[in-house]
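Table S2 (continued). Query chain:
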Amino acid sequence: MSNDKSFSLLDSNGILTEEAMAEMEKSGDSVSCECPGNLIHLLRSVKEFTAYQEKCIKVKPEDEMIHNWLKATSVNLEHLLSSTAINLARMEGLIDEKNQFIKD
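Corresponding output:
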């Protein structure tokens, strides 16, 4: 499933890396449903929303409290979706107990 490149599943903030998301999407073709790809799609959408909140804080400083709360909530969602995707990948036999992609 994986090439010989080694990379971390999680970034320094504990969020699934782009490389890991791409590998899961690619590997997801070998499972019986589209759940891995759908989780990755949701995670990317939430990551975009988190970045958007940064812009809102700068553009509308009067609403900083609201946008900081939204950003914190979306970061929590990023963590939840990252963990869910990793656990699903493990259950589907895509990664091992050391969080390494299993090669065919």
